Amino acid sequence: MPLDALKSAVLEANLDTVRHGLVKATFGNASGIDRETGRIVIKPSGVPYPEMTPQYMVLTDLDGAALDNRFRPSSDLDTHVALYRAFPQIGGIVHTHSTYATIMAQARRPIPPLGTTHADYFRGTIPVTRDLTAEEITTRYVAATGSVIAETVGDRDPLAIPAVLVAGHGPFVWGRDPAEAVMNAMILEEVAKMAWHGAVLDRQPPAISDALLDRHFLRKHGANATYGQ
Amino acid sequence: MPLDALKSAVLEANLDTVRHGLVKATFGNASGIDRETGRIVIKPSGVPYPEMTPQYMVLTDLDGAALDNRFRPSSDLDTHVALYRAFPQIGGIVHTHSTYATIMAQARRPIPPLGTTHADYFRGTIPVTRDLTAEEITTRYVAATGSVIAETVGDRDPLAIPAVLVAGHGPFVWGRDPAEAVMNAMILEEVAKMAWHGAVLDRQPPAISDALLDRHFLRKHGANATYGQ
Amino acid sequence: MPLDALKSAVLEANLDTVRHGLVKATFGNASGIDRETGRIVIKPSGVPYPEMTPQYMVLTDLDGAALDNRFRPSSDLDTHVALYRAFPQIGGIVHTHSTYATIMAQARRPIPPLGTTHADYFRGTIPVTRDLTAEEITTRYVAATGSVIAETVGDRDPLAIPAVLVAGHGPFVWGRDPAEAVMNAMILEEVAKMAWHGAVLDRQPPAISDALLDRHFLRKHGANATYGQ
Amino acid sequence: MPLDALKSAVLEANLDTVRHGLVKATFGNASGIDRETGRIVIKPSGVPYPEMTPQYMVLTDLDGAALDNRFRPSSDLDTHVALYRAFPQIGGIVHTHSTYATIMAQARRPIPPLGTTHADYFRGTIPVTRDLTAEEITTRYVAATGSVIAETVGDRDPLAIPAVLVAGHGPFVWGRDPAEAVMNAMILEEVAKMAWHGAVLDRQPPAISDALLDRHFLRKHGANATYGQ
C-alpha cells in the first residue's frame, strides 16, 4: 500500500472513532501497518481531531523508531508496536476509552457471546487482561500493555477474537486493516453495552450455543463466508 | 402496488431503521410484499446504507427465488419468506439488532404491557422464541428462524402483537406495509427500553389492566379506531 | 392573548417537545388557554409533526366543544379540559411519554426531591395517580384521567408541583403558559432520569432538606425570586 | 490577559458546556479570573445561551462586587468568588448539573479512580461535600457552598483533583483557565457515568493501583509530562 494511502486510511480511522462516539477529547488512537515494508503509521499525540490532516500522521518502523520528525507519535505507540509484532495477521489497531467497553474493562468482566451481534464479529468470549504489576507500570508501561494483551490472546487466532479489554484501562481492538479495526471497535462497544445490561438483569446471562456462534461468525468470515455482494 | 413504488417503500423503510437509530453497520433489513403478484422486495446483502438506491433492492417470488440477478438478497431472506407465508395479513417486515430489544432477546425476557405506550401498538405481551436446536442451526438456520417465530405466534393475530424476540438474536417486527413495520420496530425498542428499566427497579413490574390495554389498542386499531384525522 | 399568538405558542410548544426528545412518533400533545375568553388551543390528532402549522391547531371552548371544524383535536383533549377547569392558575399543559418519566409512572414511583435540579422547579415530591378503575376506563377514560390527576394534586398549589405521573401511562405537566409547561416537562424528564439511577444505586436515596428545597424553589419562583435579569 | 480575551474565553466556556451536553436549560455557569488585576468574569443570570455575546459577561472584583452594571451575575457568583479566594492556583470554574455527576452528588457517592480515564485528569478520589446545615442554607447559602467545597479539598492541591461534588446539588469543577475547567467537567461526567455503571455491577468496584494512577496523571501533568506535541 502506498504510504499516502496508508496515512489517509489511518486518519480516517481516527476520525471515525470520533464520528461513532467511541472517543472523547483526545483519548484514543488508531494506526495501520504496511506489512511489505514494515512501516507503521499512527496518530500524533495530543493534536485536536478537527486539525488533523494526513500529514500529521506519524511514520515509524517496526521498532517504533520515528522515520520522520515533524510530530511526536501517540503516547501508546509502544503498545501498537508490540501488537503488530505479536500478531502478524493484523493490519490495523484502534484504542479507545469507549464507555461500556471501558466499564467492563474497569470491572474486569470478560464479555461472553450473548447473541448473534457478538457472534457476527467475535468467535467467543472477549477476554480481560490481568492487572499489570507495579514493576511493569513503572519501568515499561506502554510496551507492557502490549505484552499483557498478547499474553491474554495466547495461541488463539487474533482475528477470531479481535479485541482485548485491558484491566482498569479500556479496549484495544484490531483487524486486517484500520477500517476493519474501527468496525470491530464499534461492534465491541455495542456488545459491551448489551453485556452490561444483561449482567444487571441476570447475574449469569445465558451464552448462545457453539452451533449458533459458529453459524454467524463463519457466515461473515473465512473461506465459506456468504455475506455481502 | 407498482413494483417501483414497492422498491421505494422498502428502501425508505431500510433507511428509516438507520435514521431512528435501530440499525448500526449493516445489521438489519426490511422488506415488503405485493400480495397480488406474490413478489417480495428486500434489502441487498452487505451494501452500505448511503449507497443504496431503489435499484439495489432485490426482487424474489414467494419461494425466495430471485427474479432478477443484479444483487444478492439479505442473508435473512428465508426468514422473511417464512413469515410472509405464515402470516397472510402482513405486508412488510423489519429485522434489527436495536439495543434494548436485543438485550431482552438475549435475556429471553418477554415484554409485558407495562403501560399505554405499549398498549397503543401491542395488544399483550411481546413473546420470545425458544432456542433453535443445533440441528435447526446447522441444516436450515435462516428458514428455521422464521418457523420458530411462527410457532411462537401460534394462532394469535400477528397484527395484534406485531413483533417477536428471537432468543439470543434480536427482534423481527412486521406490519401491514414496510412503513408500519418500521414504526412498530421503533415503538418496540422504546417499550423494550422501558421494560428493562422497570425490571431493574422491580423484579415483577406491574402490568396494566386488560381494560386499559384494550382501551388504548382499540383506539388506534380496528373498526372502531378514533385516532387521527 | 390574540388567538393567532396562542396558536403559534401552542404549535411551538408541541414542536419543542419533539426537539427536546420528549416525544416520539405522534405520542404527546401540548395545549394553551386564553383565560379571558376561555378558549383552548390544542394539537390535532395524529398529524405528523413536520406538517403542522398554526392553522392545524384546534380551537375549543372550556367544555371541549370544537369552535372550528377543520381538524379533530388530540384524543387527550378531555384530560386537558379537566385540568384547565380544576387548576385556574395554569395556562398551558404538556403530555408526553418521555422515557424516564414514563418508566417511573409505569413503576408507580413518586419522584422525591433528591437534589437542587428538582428543587428549582418542583417544591416537593412529584406524585403518581392511583390506577383508574375498569369502570372509569370503559365509560369515561380521557376525562377520568384528568379527574384522577386533580384528585392527586388535591388542595396543593398546582404551580408548586407542576406535574403528575399517571400510573401505567406517563406524565402530564403544566405551567403558566405553554412554553413554561414544556420547560417543566424537560426538567421532569431529567429529574426522573436521575431518580431512576438513584433508586437503582440505593433503595432509599436521601431527599434534600426542606431548607434547601425552599431556598432553591423560592430563588426562581414567587414574590422574592432573584433569578434572571 | 486583556479583558476582552477573558470575556471571550468565559463565553466560549459557557457555550461549550451546552455543546458537550453538560448543561440543559439555563442550569450551569462558567467563569474566569485575571489574577494580575483580580478581576472575575462570569455568566449573567438567566440569559438564554443562544443570545449570549461577550458583552453579556459580567465583570466583578475579588469580593464579587460588580464593576459594571449592565447585567446581573450568575446567582452562583459567591461560590465562584469563594473558590478563587481559596484556590490561588486556579483560573477558571465551571458549575453544571451534568446528569451522572449530579446522580453521584445526590447519592453522596465519591468517585474512586476506577480506570486510567479518571487517572489522566484526577489524581485520586473525587470527593463529596458534607450537607450544608439549615443555618448555612438560610443565611449565606451561595458563599457557604464555596466554603464547604474548600473545606472538602482541605490542604490537597486543587489542581490534582479539580472537582468536588456538592451533596444534593452537583459538581463544581476548575482548572488553570476556563477551557481546562470545561475539559475537566466533561471528563468528570464520563468518569461519573462509568462509576455509576461500575457500582451497579459490583458494590465495591476495584480501584486501580497507585502506580497506575500516578503513571497516567503524571504523563499529562507536572514537570515531567510527556503527552502532546
Give an overview in words.
4 copies of one chain form a homotetramer. Chain A is an alpha+beta fold and 229 residues long. Chain A has a single domain, classed as Class II aldolase/adducin N-terminal domain (L-fuculose-1-phosphate Aldolase), CATH 3.40.225.10. Chain A is 41% helix and 12% strand. Chain A has 7 helices and 6 strands, in the order αβββαβαααββαα. The first copy, chain A, has a 6-stranded antiparallel sheet with strand order 3-2-1-4-6-5, with helices on both faces. In chain A, a hairpin with a 4-residue loop joins strand 1 and strand 2. In chain A, helix 3 packs across helix 6. The longest helix of chain A has 24 residues. The model of chain A has no long low-confidence stretch (mean pLDDT 95). Chains in contact: A-B, A-D, B-C, C-D. Chains A and B meet through helix 6 and helix 7 of A and helix 3, helix 5 and helix 6 of B. Chains A, B, C, D: It is an enzyme of class 5 (isomerase). Chains A, B, C, D: GO terms for molecular function: aldehyde-lyase activity; L-ribulose-phosphate 4-epimerase activity; metal ion binding. Chains A, B, C, D: It comes from Antarctobacter heliothermus. Chains A, B, C, D: InterPro entries: Aldolase_class_II_sugar_metab, Aldolase_II/adducin_N, Aldolase_II/adducin_N_sf. Chains A, B, C, D: Belongs to the aldolase class II family. AraD/FucA subfamily.
Radius of gyration based on Cα positions of chain A: 17 Å
Domain count of chain A: 1
Task: Say which CATH homologous superfamily of chain A is assigned.
Answer: Class II aldolase/adducin N-terminal domain
Alpha-carbon distance between the two ends of chain A = 24 Å
CATH class of chain A: Alpha Beta
Oligomer: homotetramer
Order of helices and strands of chain A: HEEEHEHHHEEHH
